[in-house]
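Inputs:
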Amino acid sequence: MDLSSINPIVLIASMMAAATPILLAATGELICEKSGVLNLGVEGMMITGAVCGFVVAAGTGNPWLGFAFAALAALAISLIFGIITQVLMANQVATGLGLTLFGLGLSALIGQGYQGVRPPRVPRIEIPYLSDIPVLGRILFSHDPMVHISLLLVVAVWVFLKFTRAGLILRAVGENHHAAHALGYRVVRVRLMAIAFGGAMAGLGGAYLSLVRVPQWTEGMTAGAGWIALALVVFAAWRPWRLLLGAYLFGGIVVLQLNLQAAGVRIPVEYLAMSPYLITILVLVIISSSRGRNALNAPGSLNRTYHASQ
Amino acid sequence: MIRLERRPAPSRFWTAATPVLAVLLTMLAGGLMFALLGKDPVAAIRIIFWDPLFNPQFASYSRPQLLVKAGPLILIAVGLSFGFRANIWNIGAEGQYIIGALCGAGVALAFYPLEAWFIFPLMVLAGALGGWAWAMIPAILKTRFNTNEILVSLLLVYVAERLLAALAMGRMRNPEGGGFPGSRNIANYPSASNTELIANTGMHWGVVTAFIAVIFGYILLHRHILGYHVQLAGQAPRAARFAGVNPDRLVMFCLGLAGLLAGLAGMFEVAGPAGRINIDFGSGYGFTAIIVAFLGRLHPIGILLAGLLLGLTYIGGELAQMMLGLPSAAIQAFQGMLLFFLLALDMLSNYRIRLKPREVA
């Protein structure tokens, strides 16, 4: 075992890349849950995004078209969830599960014939001077643009929720849908938009996996990333900055685990591969056992079905 | 303008009619999907739903398969239905199924090649206990630390899959297998094998257990105080508290029961139809069982019928794969669609559609 082969600077840089897909998906789910909707279909939307982005990018040779199409495809299937839960008022947990099962099946269907195909490369952006700064340059400015876009999106979501009128309406709908309705806000419309945003973000996260992170298409390649994104929203207590922290911590664990595998630690690979899931569970336990502000921070109408006639 | 008016109680007619309607709509939408894939939709639907049972060429092989596929689905779904009724969401049955199989197989492999009557019963016990214990993790975390059982039970599926892979390639690998992953064949080990009880029916101990679970589930749900508590906690959680239902004990019971039955299903599968522990042992029964539970309206008799129907789609899917070159994933998408239609149509049993002039908001 040779731990000295693990370079901390490279580790931090690759941690950011490892965190990006779940960060994207979790940011979308954060908005969705802030509007009072629990969408358990993140995994299904992510993998739909992964396969659609891959197919389009491999077909056109343009990864950016792939990302755009991934967001659109995941948005489209998130609206199935939206219509069933918001218009037809079905149970959100069951419908979200259905979305995951459907997405996994659909993606395997679309992706057959694409196994082993290599997608076009997403270029890294080397920013003159900034990328040359000794440590920070390597950590912050040697990534593909999606890493920076994901960071900007977190900031944008924070600004939206905290400083805009629309963000306030979204939060009102999520905290108490009857009160929001009485104030004249269109609860169902707001929620459908939040679900669509969540879908598009999950699609981007999935496409990041298949186009940058892996980069390949294999069946079931998200391997629970969507569920980890859901756990991350709980960990973050529905706050964007903590989401960022959580995602990077998690990315660090994944990368460290991969590095340990490569360094030849005498633990079977399968046991190391369990660690991200086990640590996610552990973190969930720690967060949920502190019955303080964290639990109170959950949106008041989360996972409640809304019917306007009352 | 169309308005939806909440019914005071769910319509009994629509509660029974929606699953049938959902199946028909899924066939239509599935046919459309197959047509988009460039296959003949009518032929595909016939191959999936009709040929496995009635085609003279395939029926002799595929008819027994129906019980083999439906058995684990029914067994798992009966367990899940109690939790779903009480708003306790165990979606990690796949993990409990895998752990049950690992425990059952572990007992068999430990005794190999001893021949004794007690090995099979011991395996049953180990499988049930293993699934139960795996389900107790989210249960205890939920009751002790208030941790979300949906996420924990699901994340544990991935842990169980890694454990399965580690054991199939490590401790449980067949020493005479020439280095290939996978355990000894348990189905060929007489004291441990879960044999077909009646020739050419597919009836094995797992299917018998599934039928017993249906009867037991029916009695528990409709004739026992625990079933009443489960229903009460689901429909009126506050009333249940005042009635003295202990929510923590209910969580333990619902998750434990589901884990126990899923563990049994896994154990019977590994000792019979699957035959051995291998990397690809987890076949998604734990997830399909969720659809079975909903399609069966969380009612044991309904689950029996729904399990048979989804078992049929598994066999039909394999047949369509062979005959039409339809990808295996198509069936998974098909099953997902079924759940969508079912949940969407549920609106009809809970709401009345009224046409009314638009009111002033």
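Residues 11 and 349 of chain B are 5 Å apart (CA to CA). Flag for discussion at group meeting.
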